[in-house]
Amino acid sequence: MKRSTRVKALAALPAVAACLAVAPTAAAASAGTAAPTCVTDSATKTFGRGEISICIENGRARVTGWVEDLKPGGWVDGECVAWYMTWQTAAGDDWSFAPVACGHAGGAYVTFDYDPSDWSQGPQGITGVKNVSLGLFDA
Questions:
Q1: Quick one: which of 73, 21, 75, 27 has its CA closest to 48?
Q2: Where is the signal peptide (predicted)?
């Protein structure tokens, strides 16, 4: 390769590097317009059952579903059933739970449709769901 050809090739490298640097930025911009990410789950355990759907878009979540207390034993049981969520947020992991079904408190079957970010103490800047599980809640 002649010296002048090598110099021209080296001179072109910054332009090529600039083009390559733009490509990830364009891809990142298009990723911001992606459809909502949704997670669904259903579970049946000895103490309760339920279904849940969580859709995340623009830092907010829409949580819908139902939960049922299968052992509404009054003061003997003393426990409720709820979905627990571990959220991925812009500030790190956070957690919350969905409305609870408490047979001993008159609500053995509960439906819900809400955004956990609407509550002042709820998770903010939600980016994903790390875990969803059906569990007991002490009332």
A1: 73
A2: 1-28
Which whole-number Å values give the CA distances from 56 to 3, 29, 91, 113, 115, in the listed order?
57, 18, 16, 13, 10
Q: Would you kindly state where each structural domain of the chain is located, as residue ranges?
A: 1-33, 37-138
The whole-number pLDDT of residue 5 equals: 41
Where do the DSSP E strands lie in 45-125? Answer: 48-57, 60-69, 79-89, 92-97, 109-114
Using pLDDT thresholds of 50, 70 and 90, give the confidence band for residue 106. confident
**92 has a pLDDT exceeding 50:** yes
**3 state SS of 36:** coil
Tell me how far apart the alpha carbons of residues 17 and 96 are, in angstroms, rounded to a whole number.
45
User: What pTM was computed for the model?
Assistant: 0.69
